[in-house]
Specification:
Layout (H helix, E strand, L loop, with lengths): L6 H11 L1 H4 L5 E5 L5 E6 L6 H18 L10 E4 L2 H4 L4 E5 L2 E8 L18 E7 L6 H14 L3 E6 L7 H5 L10 H8 L5 H4 L4 E2 L7 E5 L9 H5 L6 E2 L5 E2 L1 H16 L3 E5 L6 H9 L4 E6 L3 H16 L3 H4 L3 E8 L4 H19 L8 E8 L2 E10 L17 E4 L10 H7 L2 H21 L5
């Protein structure tokens, strides 16, 4: 019996078996539809090439036999298109390993596309706070980071994109400073070209900073109104006058660009929804994040979730586009046995990075570069090690965690606004220091004055 997870292994096996035929094509698209059924899409020129068409028919018969319910019948399993780009419209697509001219086009019911990685934004830095599971203190850490950077005189823009579980804005803004509108209002009004009516009333400044500024774009305004009804529309693509559709992630990118132009921040901090859904994928992969913080609790639930995501990036061949932006954050590190806890977390993080994201490092090659000093009979040898990899103990590696210590005074968001108003900077440093110092260090290295 062939199930969904066996589709790609079966297809890959058949591609190898029919490689002589496949290599005759300029391109081949393996089209997996919304129901998980596979068709082959080939250049339309093949339709008049009887020999190749016949060989592709044999391939289609093998495909239908191997995939069973996950293949269209052999007689209907081949489609012809003018170009691969045209054939893959509306799908997430990537080339298959070992076959540079063979692509998988995956049709998904949602717009979430973890395999489409936007290039890093230039200029001001965008930092995404993300976690596989909720309840890890992610939003609290973001608020404390914003507070600390603003205390240092920086202009910080904060976006609450945890739209289905909003609350970050209440940690930075007292009720009387909440703006009239929020991100959901802008996205809904944008569908009817009315977004300008709410834009100027969707940003508020926090009263927590002294030398800098914290600008907050909340999920919703002071009066949420019909928030549930609005939430059901924010993911909508926008129909353009020419009939094209602008995806919701593209609309969100447009909003963020507009907010940055309005606020001129030094850094943008984005609170992402937890989990592997389309909201999180937009925050992590679509907004050009320069740094993605992976909040983690030590435990199988955390690592199983990140393993799934990393493996998806590896299979989609986009791991190289994401891995250098990632950094693990050890969340809510307990007061007792901290050293052992962090060692265990680092070890498990290292394991999944090695399995999915780090390059396999072959034994180093050698290269003669000249005679050794004072000895003309021997030559200096330089070891050459290629690949993107890190030692487990390397503190600068993505898997090596910045820690956030659990502390009872920061255990909940409800009182965080009041807590930060009277907090001692040394206490913030004691709890969030490694995280904040790490972010500041990266911003410094990228020529952002933090």
């Amino acid at each position: 019996m062939t199930t969904f997870d066996k589709i790609l292994p079966c297809v890959t096996e058949l591609l190898h078996a029919h490689r002589g035929t496949v290599d005759l094509l300029d391109w081949l698209l393996i089209n997996r539809d919304l129901n998980g059924r596979v068709r082959l899409i080939v250049p339309e020129a093949i339709e008049t090439e009887e020999a190749i068409r016949s060989q592709m028919g044999v391939f289609a018969e093998s495909l239908a036999e191997q995939l069973g319910a996950h293949s269209h019948p052999a007689k209907a399993a081949i489609l012809y298109e003018a170009s691969r780009e045209l054939a893959s419209q509306g799908a997430t697509s990537h080339s298959l390993e070992g076959f540079g001219h063979v692509w998988l086009a995956d049709r998904l019911a949602t717009e979430g596309n973890w395999a489409q990685i936007a290039p890093e934004t230039e200029g001001r830095r965008r930092v995404v706070f993300f976690s596989i599971k909720g309840g890890v203190g992610r939003s609290t850490a973001l608020a404390a980071t914003a507070w600390t950077l603003a205390q240092a005189g920086k202009r910080v823009l904060v976006l609450d994109l945890d739209l289905e579980s909003p609350g970050l804005s209440s940690s930075l803004l007292p009720p009387e400073r909440q703006p009239a509108f929020g991100i959901t209002d802008w996205l809904v009004e944008d569908l009817v070209d009315n977004a300008d009516e709410v834009f100027e009333s969707m940003i508020a400044t926090s009263d927590l900073s002294h030398d800098g500024e914290i600008y907050v774009a909340p999920a919703h305004g002071a009066d949420p109104g019909e928030y549930v009804s609005k939430l059901g529309r924010v993911w909508m693509p926008k129909a353009e006058a020419n009939g094209s559709l602008e995806s919701w992630s593209a609309r969100l990118q447009r909003l963020l660009t507009k907010l940055e132009a309005r606020v001129q921040p030094d850094v943008v901090l984005i609170d992402s929804r937890a989990g592997i859904d389309e909201v999180a994928s937009t925050c992590v992969t679509d907004l050009g994040a320069n740094l993605v913080l992976l909040f983690a609790l030590e435990g199988s639930q955390t690592w199983n979730g990140y393993q799934v995501l990393f493996e998806h990036w590896r299979r989609a061949r986009v791991a190289e586009a994401m891995r250098e932006r990632l950094k693990v954050v050890a969340a809510l590190v307990p007061e007792i046995d901290r050293v052992a806890y962090l060692e265990g977390l680092r070890e498990h993080a290292y394991e999944i990075f090695v399995e999915s994201l780090y390059d396999e490092i072959a034994p180093p090659s050698t290269d003669a570069i000249g005679p050794a000093p004072n000895d003309n009979r021997r030559w200096q040898v330089r070891q050459i090690v290629e690949g993107w990899n890190f030692d487990e103990a390397d503190e600068g590696a993505p898997h090596s965690p910045w820690s956030v210590h659990w502390h009872r005074s920061f255990a909940g968001l409800r009182s965080l606004q009041g807590r930060l108003a009277v907090i001692d900077a040394q206490e913030v440093k004691a709890i969030f220091g490694p995280l904040i110092e790490g972010i500041s260090g990266i911003l410094d290295s990228e020529n952002v004055d933090v």
